[in-house]
Amino acid sequence: MPRRRGPPAWALGLATACNGAFSGVLVVTVPQLLAARGVPELEIASISGLSFLPGVFNFLVAPILDVGLSRRIYAIGLALGLAALTALSLNLLSNLPLLAATMFVANVCYYLYTPAIAGWFSQLLARDEEPVLGAWMAAASVAGFGCASAAAIVLLRALPYELGVALICLVSLAPLSLFFFVPHEPLPTLSIRNSFGPVARNLAKIVRDRHIWRMMALFAAPCATFSLTNTLSGVGRDFHASEAFVGLIGGVGTTVGGVFGALVAPVLVKRFPPLALYIGVGAAGALFTLSLLLPARTPFLFALAMVGENVFQSAAFALIYALVLISIGRNNPIASTQYALINAASIAPIVYMPILDGLGYDRGGLGGNLAVDAVVSLAACAVMAVLFSRPWRDTVAAEDANAPEPDAV
Question: Residue 159: is it exposed, middle or buried by C-beta count within 10 angstroms (0-12/13-18/19+)?
Answer without folding.
Answer: middle
